[in-house]
Amino acid sequence: MSQKQPTSAISARWKMYVGGQPVGLLYLSVADQPWSTCRFQPLEGWEPVLTLFEVQNQAVLEGFPEDKGWATKEIRQRGVELRPMDEISGPVIRPFMIYVSGYEARFRS
Q1: What are phi and psi of 30, to 5 degrees?
Q2: pTM of the model
Q3: Of 5, 26, 1, 6, nearest to 15 (Cα)?
Q4: Residues with Cβ < 8 Å from 67, sequence gap 6 or more?
């Protein structure tokens, strides 16, 4: 059973890039290995990739049907990087999976 680790008042923060473009800011709220849950703040670059993440979220709800698998593939092909915004956030993270829905993001590295 995994253990949720609450974050302190000072928590990890990253700028999220998709295809080399900044799309949002992530603020760690819960580390529940292997997943990390964050508050997501979109940046101007979010609009062009929003549909990819919406389709991916719908695929999760529908059990990953074939006709929606393209979105996850496209996100992976473009590449996602979480670049630290401060010293406590550690090195660059290239998540294995990342989901963004509204103002919440979850990733697994």
Answers
A1: -145, 130
A2: 0.85
A3: 26
A4: none
pLDDT digits 0-9 by tens, 36-66: 999 999 999 999 999 999 999 999 999 988 8
Question: Hey, is 66 helix, strand or coil?
Answer: helix
Residue 73 token pair:
């593939």
The 8 Å CB, 24+ separation contacts for 20-23 are 20/79, 21/45, 21/48, 21/49, 23/49
> Residues near 4 by Cβ (< 8 Å), separated by ≥ 6?
30, 31, 32
Report in angstroms the alpha-carbon separations of 9 from 12, 28, 29, 52.
10, 10, 10, 32
